[in-house]
Amino acid sequence: MRNRLVVANWKMNGSLEANARWAEAFLALEDAGCDAAVCAPSVYLSQMACLLKGSSVALGAQDVNEFESGAYTGEVSARMLAEIGCSYVIVGHSERRALYGDTDDRVALKAKAALAAGIHPIVCVGETLEEREAGETIAVVSRQLEAVIGKVGAEDFARCTVAYEPVWAIGTGKSATPEIAQEVHAALRAELTKHAAELGDKVRILYGGSVKPGNAASLFAMPDIDGGLIGGAALKAQDFYEICTAH
Ligand code: PGA
Q1: H or E stretch including 122?
Q2: Mutational pocket test of ligand 1: of 96, 165, 215, the residue with most ligand atoms within 8 Å of the beta carbon
Q3: How many A from CA of 166 to the centre of ligand 1?
Q4: Which side of the chain, N or C, has fewer Cβ within a 10 Å radius?
């Protein structure tokens, strides 16, 4: 039995004031009844750690450097994230892959660094529109997934979460249909099962890409969709709550 996990990816949004209002509003609502996490910009992680303290909402970061420490100006290490209270970190988001040169190999190293610090990586995979139209979706997401499993090993991958985020659905308002998403999630789960039956059973596979209160229930009803990674709609506490509780 995999518990639903819903993760807010705030991207480069927020302010001290807006974050405080978000936390106040979200925590005033009844328990969401699922695992929930907020991935905030790194400068706000300590603020969010204070605001979420004592609640059931976990804290996450949006990226991490693959090295332990050293001359990497501007970067943040997994140990630093752990120290500040992060239990999750997103790795391999398509924006990082497309805009900041994160390769499959670097994403795998980031996941490994996170695991070494005791943080659960949320490994993002997803195809572009061109790749989908060329019939390459499953090959692309499998390659992205295998790169990480190959580096961290099947045993440690049990502490990872996968997020399927078709690039064409992110921030476009065009979510994948539940059926399209389910097909890819099932393929990802089969890939996990090839390594170990337990991995297929245990690892949560989230869907991300234009999830809103109005479409969350139908997506989450699919057998291999274990929750969501939410961008735009997670900026409003009420919308995020409605997604968490959608049924
Ligand atoms: P979106 O973003 O919900 O705004 O489409 C999802 C994501 O990029 O994680």
Answers
A1: strand 120-125
A2: 165
A3: 10
A4: N
Q: What is the mean pLDDT of residues 85-108?
A: 98
Using an 8 Å Cβ cutoff, are 16 and 40 in contact?
no
Residue 71 CA to ligand 1 center (angstroms) comes to 32
Percent of the chain whose predicted confidence (pLDDT) is above 90: 99
133 is catalytic: no
Number of H helices, E strands in the chain: 12, 8
Write down the pTM of the prediction.
Answer: 0.98
| Residue 183 CB-half CA count within 13 A | 9
Q: Is it the case that residue 121 has pLDDT exceeding 90?
A: yes
Ligand 1 binding residues, C-beta < 6 A = 9, 165, 170-171, 208-211, 229-233
The reported pLDDT for the residue numbered 178 is 98
What are the start-end ranges of the H helices in the chain?
Answer: 16-28, 45-52, 78-84, 94-99, 104-116, 129-133, 137-152, 154-157, 178-195, 197-202, 213-220, 237-244
Section 189-201 average pLDDT: 97
Q: How many residues does the chain have?
A: 247
Distance of CA 26 to the CA centre of its chain: 19
Candidate from 97, 230, 244 with most ligand 1 atoms within 8 A of CB, to mutate: 230
If you search the block for the tokens 């049990």, which residue do you land on? 158
Note if 66 is an active site residue: no
**Closest residue by CA, ligand 1 atom 6:** 231
